[in-house]
Amino acid sequence: MGIVVVEVCDGNAITTINIEEILEKEFPEVAVLMNECLSFCGLCRVKPYALINNRRIFGNTPEECLDKIRIAIKEELAVYQ
Predict the structure, then answer these.
(1) For the chain, which residues score pLDDT lower than 50?
(2) Whole-prediction pTM value?
């Protein structure tokens, strides 16, 4: 398990890209958990999002969201360096 946990809802638009493979390859300290539902009803349909250590990160497109997720991961990892 990583020191940064990224949680993604299976029904979210972010799943159109292989976020799990991308992030775990770029950041070995990250664990990506794919969940059936994260209980933020309606958010999945509105914007791509993920939870980074329980903090919601979202963007207008999956690619924009991924860029913001990368920034959030780097911020989380900075605490441990």
Answers:
(1) 1
(2) 0.88
